[in-house]
DNA sequence: TTGTGTTTTATTGCCTCC
DNA sequence: GGAGGCAATAAAACACAA
């Protein structure tokens, strides 16, 4: 009898048991803080979680292996991408070949394992793993809320539970990166994230080819593709006047005012958002510029990587189309995409689904009429490419259900102000509108300054063709015109336009040319 | 519902370090 | 030699598509 009981007990113990969400959450949290916990830590943790020390040790061991595996996969992926593109990317794939070749005893071998400890805060692959965990774990949200009372370290855990790939998650409240543990910094070099990561993912052969074709003409800090801009309207930057009372420059007086003016007017506000965005990402980029990146979004899981990778291709030349939809949704709805972790989540189920619903319900409205964003301006102005509404709808229909597009959504929402539909909305939106206007003041100012600088420093051959601009600009004030010009100028203004957008634009143009 | 693929957990053996 | 860690392996649990 006793032997039978023992047998049963052994069987019971032998049969693996899934750890509860709370346990996993706690373990993950601890793992972020201490990649290599001491025996005391393990004991304490085991006691708290009702596990054995052996289980805890094993979990940490497997967790490290998981990290390593994900890192290796990511590195291999990047390495293949580099090969396929024929260009050695100076960012985003440093680890690749080295780690691909040898895995014995891990890629951390060259580092003191202890030095690797506590790097988890910056370890994006952990986030990816957590994202994978979330996919599997329907209780994640509960766990997340459960940890609400936790202290600082738990905040990261909570973020984990949300599994947002938002690169700003680790930013300090003031938007700056938290102080970097030198030890962590070492590891950081291997873990690109945020913009750099996304960029590395999407920088497919098409973009590479475009860059190759452009050669010297492609300057990240210079005019784009030789697009000609019209000269700055006289007095465009004169003292700001009441947009209602003041006369305004109108290159084409025949054009009536239209709601687009509102949308266009909003564009400058994006600069402030862009600045913030770029601040975040550029800060991260500064850490990513190292020889070796991998990336948390890619690290999500092998399974998801397989699902995601094919979507990195530009089957949809304008994946950003959904973004404006998203923007509309968020600008009028509850949470803005800019602040939403979910919208930064790359390749997450929710994000994709959200996009689908957006496209399905709103795309027809969003692409009626003329271009409303700087990107649209470019599309109209460049090579006289006139996209019909139908075509645009098709862009939407071919909604990119991929991580990149999802990332674009979040970026897009930063790029674009509210669409013209905002103008049509009821007065109930005026409150939100005022908020935009507030930001517009700052944004316009910065844009105008930027534009003025450009007017001095750069030749004017890069002015957008006036027709295209006039066609799209309902002008209500001189200031609006200056804003319009500033928006156009943002395409070659390095501080306003993200390289990410440039890449997409290049890819789009490349598609057109093909 | 089922088959397949992925992830997680547990176990074992080997290696390195002290 | 013991402790700790890594890698390999098996099996259970899970996710997802057909």
Automatic annotation (TrEMBL):
Query: Where does it localize?
Result: Nucleus
Which Pfam family, just one, is annotated for this protein? Answer: Homeodomain
Domain of life assignment = Eukaryota
- Primary location class: nucleus
* Biased amino acid composition, Basic and acidic residues: 104-122, 412-437
Q: Name one GO molecular function term.
A: DNA binding
Q: For the region Disordered, what residue ranges are annotated?
A: 87-176, 237-269, 282-318, 410-437
Q: Which portions of the chain have biased composition (kind: Low complexity)?
A: 144-162
Keyword set, alphabetical order: DNA-binding, Homeobox, Nucleus
Keyword Transmembrane tagged: no
Looking at the record, the residues that make up the Homeobox domain are: 10-70
Q: GO CC: one term?
A: nucleus
DNA-binding region boundaries: 12-71
Output the InterPro entries linked to this UniProt entry: HD (IPR001356), Homeodomain-like_sf (IPR009057)
PANTHER family attached to this UniProt entry:
HOMEODOMAIN-LIKE SUPERFAMILY PROTEIN
Query: What is this protein's name?
Result: Homeobox-DDT domain protein RLT1
- Source organism phylogeny: Eukaryota, Viridiplantae, Streptophyta, Embryophyta, Tracheophyta
